[in-house]
């Protein structure tokens, strides 16, 4: 894709410093809530009210608090965590695969109605998922599948935005010459897709996966509409339940905070782990 | 139970979404509607030997234990229980969806103030003709019976579960030290507010975020916010002299800075109580446990007195919160469902469990016979506070009725009250706005408003 970045010798040190300062300020702005979460999750319930939110106070209780949360109500939180991983992991993976195939097909095959299909999918990007929750609920009710894992998982397996991104990226990064060459060498269309296209599209697919993973992880409304059984809840809905029960059980206030901290850990891990795929496209230098 | 904080948006969405279903509004005395309510005469038990399975949802902590007890003793009527989030936190939205999809199951919990909304969605079965209900409904106080019948003769759209009759929690230690007695009338309350202010304290808190609390106070004074004519036309009147009297009373206290104006029933309130800032708290039975758990420093210092009255020697009350268990119109076994509900919220053993695990103050009139509710409470200085609330419960005005769009009405009220306590509006104007907005919302849902 683009050439490796060159550091320009003509850069003004003042503007570099300014940019850095700007970035630091923004990083601080975005990290402050996380910092608050870490600090607050390590306090005792008594310290929660009594002390300032942005600095530690009293004994460092984080490990104890985490153990309390994980053990509460027969390990319900772990179940929610597992549900979230299931919904977001499987949903994200399937959605990515579907998006990759659809995007590749739309970019590389010419067939009647191609633009119409693409436009319909684009329209799908514009419809907020919240608006679809109720129709989905009615559909799932028809087949008696509400209040099951599938009720959240199936709708999570599609990502119109992913298809859009995959198409744009496939058009730009999978050269027709490579596909031609593969065909000449006798590779089937499937093989061409999985062996060549998917690899070339990897950075885009990682993006699609992460977007979808985060979207499902943070999804609240769909599970709220679909699920009644608390053992099927994802973390978002679980924490909401705890939050609404605080007046009856004040311990839950701290649990919600610690739970919120725990709930962002998998997201951070996913980002750190997948970040390296963004560094460069594999196709660089593939065609001369 | 208590009123909403977070899930308003959802509930509003629910209200909007349900619009479609409510086109043919049938208010207090309306017709049951297609596929709607079960005809009263059709409530027959399943043939002997049939095993009946029922579903039941609520958000009362520990309700599973009550259900377990029933299941042990009733092998032929087994109840599957699901604990859900609070009504306004999402469950009302779920109910509305389930009514549309026809998947409500058999039994669900609904607060009194949301009952009309689900009645209008044709979601509720009339179980008045079910034998266990017909036999036992007189065990509930009159005001709750009116609430669940919507004034229809012989109709019962829900079994009263718990109630929230208002009383006055007060700091007995501070009152004794100041040589004061808890106020018997609102005039006395206002006088004491000035005296307490002079001593550096505040008599209480006007909770801007708890519109149902204000509603209960207006209720006590005989307000009639919602009435339904014979032709099914609703009338909304939130600016009647009774309500305005209550509003002006609090407006004066707010203007004189003699009451706190912080969010109620949450951390902010508990901190204020912990600091000994507020000398009284107008609350419901369920508030007792919250104060006890959240304000440990008040141990032995609090007591409960009757709610102040508008006229000396008066005996009027209002209810803050409280809920019912309904049998859904889609239930295949209304008889068994009604039988379970009457047991779960009428049988002493069940009531004892509900109180122990869920902190419920039962609607049933036998409540003070329960051992747990006839014991002195150490936190409240050895007082048997429940007899106060039982008395208050008998005094709740039976003619107050809720509107069909309370979630929306509450939203307008709490937003307005929030401005009022900041001096940006007057309580009376807020009520006028809320009335206009409520009528607008009802019209938008094709409900006839006069």
Automatic annotation (TrEMBL), chain B:
The keyword RNA-binding is assigned to this record: no
The answer to keyword Aminoacyl-tRNA synthetase applying to this record is: no
What span is annotated as the signal peptide, if there is one? 1-24
Keyword tags: Cell membrane, Lipoprotein, Membrane, Palmitate, Signal
Provide the coiled-coil residue spans. Answer: none
List, alphabetically, the InterPro entries matched: Bact_solute-bd_prot1 (IPR050490), SBP (IPR006059)
* Stated name of the protein: Extracellular solute-binding protein
Q: Which organism is it from?
A: Pseudonocardia humida
